[in-house]
């Protein structure tokens, strides 16, 4: 008999959460998204999910800092995908206490709800590459055109899960704390948890801002004709992963939880999808036919000059590999942002 209990997605109105909910509902799964709508724009994602899937997706407006609604939602869930978070490093620096309450304490609320009320439910957690800190010092990188590359050949395949943890910034600390709790609840309490340490995820339904979601923010600024501020020298490198591929990895882990419970994985686009900020600006110019104006400001705390994911652990365990190349992914995000924020003459957007 099929299990009709819903899959709970905390932060399910957010960018990655609503893409997960959409894919699950498309394949016929019942979904409950729990979100406090803290992120500007995400109410629209809730409406989008309801318009596409009706009763298959239920929306619960609640805060993960409050254990009671979390317990209510967890109790009946078939699985828990935990993505609700304070997501901006900048906001974590201006208000570390709130950042801790949401990311660390909120995650403990989710884990305790599972441990005490539904201990067989798989839990997959959205962690971050920020748990590895700045990673590399200036003596270990060199310039190649518009991007940094590591001088040590051993890093060419990217950063693996064996890399020492080095939480940096309050956001790094609160997400890293949550990451370690999720991992430890598998060891100590036998919960069926998986940690996904994600690099830069991008794609449709991302309301990127200067503080988080930089690829969407850069594209949106180009569409709006707004100048960009680049923090640092713009040569810092990230590997970008299209959200459809990220969703593919999460669902592969969920569907084969017996194989991967207790594991930690790095999840990103890998070396083939690496791009620097300045290279992205060039690509956006090609895509839109218009240059993007920008200026520079100081580096942000903990900003990694180079981060590329080694995805081999995930590939070996689940046969997962990214499918969407960055050039194609950028086109798809540009199309979505333009349809949402652009005007028919292609000049400036109409609504915010
Ligand atoms: N997007 C990325 O590149 C990326 C990279 C690494 C890790 N992550 C992690 O993935 C998760 C999802 O990120 P996203 O990009 O979709 O961000 P997002 O901001 O679009 O989604 C987060 C959602 O959580 C909700 N939320 C915030 N505080 C809450 C609270 N106290 N209670 C309930 N809901 C709350 C927000 O309203 C939002 O809908 C986050 O945990 C983030 O740290 C994202």
Briefly say what this structure is:
The chain has 352 residues and is α/β, with parallel strands linked by helices. Helices cover 41% and strands 18% of the residues.
CATH topology term: Rossmann fold
End-to-end distance: 46 Å
Average pLDDT: 94
User: What is the name of the CATH class?
Assistant: Alpha Beta
Helical fraction? 40-55%
Largest sheet: 7 strands, parallel
Q: Please list the strands of the largest sheet in the order they lie side by side.
A: 3-2-1-4-5-8-12
Low-confidence parts lasting 5 or more residues at pLDDT below 50?
345-352
CATH architecture: 3-Layer(aba) Sandwich
Instruction: Please state roughly what percent of the residues sit in beta strands, choosing from under 5%, 5-15%, 15-25%, 25-35%, 35-45% or over 45%.
Output: 15-25%
């Amino acid at each position: 008999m099929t299990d009709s209990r819903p899959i709970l997605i905390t932060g399910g109105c957010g960018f990655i959460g609503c893409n997960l909910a959409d894919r699950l509902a498309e394949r016929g799964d019942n979904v409950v998204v729990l979100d406090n709508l803290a992120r500007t724009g995400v109410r629209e994602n809730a409406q989008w999910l309801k318009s596409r899937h009706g009763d298959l997706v239920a929306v619960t407006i609640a805060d993960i800092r409050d254990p009671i609604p979390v317990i209510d939602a967890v109790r009946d869930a078939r699985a828990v995908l935990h993505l609700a978070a304070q997501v901006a490093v900048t906001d974590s620096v201006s208000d570390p206490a709130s950042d801790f309450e949401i990311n660390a304490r909120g995650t403990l609320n989710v884990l305790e709800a599972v441990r005490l009320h539904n201990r067989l439910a798989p839990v997959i957690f959205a962690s971050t590459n920020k748990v590895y800190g700045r990673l590399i010092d200036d003596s270990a990188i060199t310039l190649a055109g518009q991007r940094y590359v590591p001088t040590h050949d051993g890093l060419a395949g990217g950063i693996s899960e064996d890399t020492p943890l080095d939480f940096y910034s309050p956001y790094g600390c609160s997400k890293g704390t949550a990451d370690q709790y999720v991992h430890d609840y598998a060891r100590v309490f036998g919960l069926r948890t998986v940690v996904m340490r994600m690099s830069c995820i991008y794609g449709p339904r991302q309301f990127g801002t200067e503080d988080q979601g930089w690829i969407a923010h850069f594209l949106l600024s180009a569409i709006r004709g707004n100048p960009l501020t680049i923090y640092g020298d713009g040569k810092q490198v990230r590997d970008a992963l299209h959200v459809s591929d990220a969703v593919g990895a999460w669902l592969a882990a969920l569907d084969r939880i017996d194989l991967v419970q207790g594991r930690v994985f790095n999840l990103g686009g890998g070396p083939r999808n690496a791009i620097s900020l300045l290279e992205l600006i060039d690509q956006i110019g090609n895509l839109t036919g218009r240059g993007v104006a920008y200026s520079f400001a100081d580096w942000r705390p903990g900003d990694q000059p180079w981060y590329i994911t080694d995805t081999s652990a995930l590939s070996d365990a689940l046969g997962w590999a990214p499918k969407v190349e960055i050039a194609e992914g950028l086109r798809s995000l540009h199309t979505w942002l333009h349809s949402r924020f652009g005007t028919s003459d292609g000049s400036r957007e109409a609504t915010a």
